[in-house]
Amino acid sequence: MDTKPNTSSTKKARTGAITVCVSDGGGNGGAVTNAELSLYEANYIHDCNRFDCNGWKANEEERIGTRRTDSKGCVTYSDLTPGIYVVSYGHYPKTDPECVSVQSGCVTDVCFKPGIDMSVQQKYLTKDCKTLECHRAQTGDIIQFTLYIKNSLQDIVAIKVPQGFKQDPSDKFTFIKKIMQPGQQEFKVSVGFPLLKLTPVNSAPGLAEMFEQVVVDADENTPLPISGNINVSLTRTETAFTEDKAFWTAIRNSTEALSFNNYLRFMDWIFCGKTPTDLSAFESSRFDTKKATWQDPLLKTRFLPFTDTDAYRVVKAATEAFVMVNCGILKTPQPFTQTGDRDLDEAYLDRRDLPLPTNKGLLSDAFNSDYLVTADGNGKTLPYLAVIRRKLPDIPIKIKPFEDAAGGISADECFGILQDKLDNPCLLELIWSYWHEEGMLVQTMNSISRRFQNVRSPNRQDPLANMEIDPLRPLNNIFWGYIQDEQHRLTVGRRHYEYDHHYGLRLEGKAVQNSRPVDTRSKFLEAFHHLLRLCTVFYKQDDDTTVKADAFPVLNALKEVHLILSQGAHNQFGDLPSMSGVNYLVRFDDNYPGRF
User: Labelling 92: which of 47, 223, 258, 496 has CA 20 to 30 A away?
Assistant: First the structure.
């Protein structure tokens, strides 16, 4: 403890000051910052040389103030009346208080040196964790430092290391980091000491800290000489897996389920007894021929009041069953499916350098939770349907179209929203039918139908003049039923008005002359062509492995097209797309891609 003259102003000549510093007394002498120091007035002590630190106890009434040390580990108490004072250190390790005699016009220095015994030892390791002794460290090597501290403090200190350092599992005071860049780098390690439990005043709770510097000096990694042929290839930037892939996988799976190849396998199974090897368990349970789950309701209701139309009737019933089961709806089967021992979804994602899903169940839950909206506590549905439900809060939910009540039908049962229509809408788009209609599929079938009825083509030369199907051929009876069922199929007028209402697209011909549509989606074609143009730009960029294509314009264009389509999903659109799909499949189409 030193005393030196105070060179402050005359006003303060009658007072003194105390400067207290805290440093490591058993280690490298580093400063202890943010340490709590309390000053007590003790005029009852007449001689500091006779001060008994073990017998002294802090008295709150005698406390003058409590302060924290600065970055240099010091704090100054000024304007003190000459007399005897006691300074106490409030952190671990426990340190005896100091008795200080303040004289008028003098500054007294006090040094606390708690036995922390802190030091740092560092060394370099190679990539295979062997000690590097003969050579300087290079980028790619490992820096390891071990913090040494007094044994009694090891269980109470808090250690903070720079970002990038990891704790050695075998020693909590050893940390390692891979050297990523050459040159000299400095890292600061902090060790915090908590307050003593018996400290009477905690005016500024927190840890006292000591800092150690870890200096890393490494050279650039020595390049390895390469000889011979060098092959260079570019790969795509790694893509993070996002939950929306489940949504797009569900679209692709629904499209594949309604493809003509799948339809042909199903018809072969129904009529020829062939068991398809790639039919999923879900489809097998829905199309179980022993239980006849699809036959009973359809065959009883889809009868035709004509002679000898059983062949066509069965084809029509089976086609309706195929569309109803394979139409994409937002419930089971889940988006990700497996067929046999090969996961088709994972193979599809792998071919496109997309990360594979790690948990199909989680993805399915995420798909159902992120893309669907709760509708009034009655399950989850599409956001557009949820909006309609919220606008009709007073209308109840009906499980069945009509339910018996005491032997009859209650009047309340005739009023409500069908649960199945709200939760499980069939996600099909009518534009598929429009494309095939413009491709002359309907006109081709009409020409065949006229020739089957022996009606000559209006053209001078009839290309079907020699088409004659004798009664022994299977198509003969199916054509007969197809023509007889003409009144039960969608007319060209109904399809024309729906094309115009939903897409703003019209058919041309005598059958649709003088049409009077109530409204039209005039902006759909513009938005759809804009989406196609952006897709060409995106795929051109995506084909270049040095560029990460920007998909946000495509996403915004998809949202615009979806909004326009949602505005036209009214009236007969709920059932017309699926009905049109059945009609076109029965017309012996060769490609039925279902669409969300």
Answer: 47
Q: For position 40, what pLDDT does the model report?
A: 92
Are 414 and 480 members of one domain?
no
What is the token pair recorded at 383?
A: 């956001």
Closest CA to 161 of 151, 152, 174: 174
Q: Quick one: 105 and 135 in the same domain?
A: no
CA distance 413 to 398: 8
Instruction: Decide if 338 contacts 344 (C-beta within 8 A).
Output: yes
d(CA 283, CA 48): 96
User: Residue 277, SS3?
Assistant: coil
Number of H helices, E strands in the chain: 16, 21
Please give the Cα distance from 286 to 294 (Å, whole number).
7
Q: Are 595 and 255 in contact (CB under 8 A)?
A: yes
Quote the CA–CA distance of 358 and 361 in Å, as a whole number: 9
Establish if 251 belongs to a structural domain.
yes
- 3-state DSSP assignment of residue 382: coil
Instruction: Provide the token pair at 228.
Output: 């011979």
Q: How many domains does the chain have?
A: 4
| CA distances (Å), origin 399, targets 123, 253, 258, 418, 421 | 73, 28, 27, 6, 10
From CA 491, how far away is CA 511, in angstroms rounded?
10
Pairwise CA distance, residues 183 & 472, whole Å: 91
- With respect to residue 200, please indicate whether it lies within any of the assigned structural domains: no
pLDDT for res 52: 85
Same domain, 453 and 408: no
Among left, alpha and beta (phi > 0; psi -120 to 50; other), residue 296 is alpha
- Parts of the chain with a pLDDT under 50: 7-12, 198-204, 281-282, 287, 289-295, 299, 332-333, 338, 340-342, 360-369, 404-407, 588-596
For residues 117 and 148, the answer to whether their CB atoms sit within 8 Å is yes
Q: In whole angstroms, what is the distance from residue 89 CA to residue 200 CA?
A: 11
The C-alpha atoms of residue 581 and residue 591 are separated, in whole angstroms, by 11
Phi first, then psi, for residue 574 (nearest 5°) are -60, -35
